Amino acid sequence: MKNKQLWINHIKGLCICLVVIYHSVITFYPHLTTLPPGLTQYVAKSWIYLNLYLAPFRMPVFFFISGYLIHRYIEQVKWQACIDKRIWNIFYVLVLWGVLQWLGITLINQWLAPDMVRNPASNAAYSETLMQFAASMAKASTSLWYLYALVVYFLVFKALRAFKVPVLIALLGINVAISFMPLPWWGMNSVVRNMFYYGLGAWFGPQLMAWMKDFSFRQHPLICALVVIGSLALYLVNVPVVISVVSIFVIMKIFYTLDNWRESRPEAFLNIVGSNTIAIYTTHRIVIEALSLFTIARISQGQLSSQVVLGILLVYPFVSLAICTLIGLGFRKLSTTLFGDMFFSPPAKLVPAAPAR
């Protein structure tokens, strides 16, 4: 990747880190039911609330960047040339890792928490039958819903590219409406809600990116202040779309400015993570399930001192992030070296390459 694009990769790295932290929090802190009143409960609740408040900043920029990076495929590349890279490759990883997560998390729960009751409809990974698994995957009720969304989004936005403005207006309205009338499936809610941000990137990404680079906060302080106040006010009444769009702009502006100040380096942590988002995204949920169940058991059984428990509560998401990152990167290396990367790339293409003329 060229240096001028590394700052975009850094944003992808930040986003996947936030995703791992999100799953680390929701699978750990809410299940610590034996914590005594006091500082430990306060720390646990603080992580839960922080996780909640980070929601408008986590996925919108991820999807905008994802849409922006495939703008050329949406506008210029013919359907046949898109099938493998933009549809089949992602669908293959979605199905393969959906099954691997289901099997892996089922075995982990049988081993570490055989008495814990899970709602099989809450996540495809907790399914008890093949039919439940298939139904949950079809409804995007899976930790891999981001991959589900990428396939659906590409098909929709490439097919409807002649109707950009009316489609985005409709998606904006749906984004607002779903905050008050959510669908019964949490994964599909996320897919529908984030479609607007992907569309902005896929259809208008280059124009918005150029505008962002030229925009100066110092030259428009009043406008910036009004936008921030307005977006916060709407967020407080459960309309997060404006603050999400603002966060996309601000995050990109910060990373672009930092890149101009000090050129991004290929060996930087966020660039390495951003270059391996699929490996970390697909593997982290299995790792987190094992890590959270093991740690919860140690804490619930009173095997650790109060000081150690407090220390774990303070840093658990960061430790989990480090472990998930190392395992994801290591597994990608193993997959590439021993299996021809078959865990992250399909072994065969659907559309054969055109013969050379």
Automatic annotation (TrEMBL):
Signal sequence bounds: none
Any Pfam family: Acyl_transf_3
GO BP terms: enterobacterial common antigen biosynthetic process
MF (Gene Ontology): O-acetyltransferase activity
UniProt cross-references to InterPro entries, sorted A to Z: Acyl_transf_3_dom
Principal localisation: membrane
Bilayer-spanning residue ranges: 12-32, 52-70, 90-113, 133-156, 163-183, 223-256, 268-287, 308-331
Compartments reported by the entry: Cell membrane
Cellular component terms (Gene Ontology): plasma membrane
UniProt keyword terms in alphabetical order: Acyltransferase, Cell membrane, Membrane, Transferase, Transmembrane, Transmembrane helix
Membrane topology: Multi-pass membrane protein
Domain Acyltransferase: 6-327
Record PANTHER family: INNER MEMBRANE PROTEIN YCFT, O-ACETYLTRANSFERASE WECH
Family of this protein: Belongs to the acyltransferase 3 family.
Protein name, as recorded: Acyltransferase family protein
Organism name: Dryocola boscaweniae
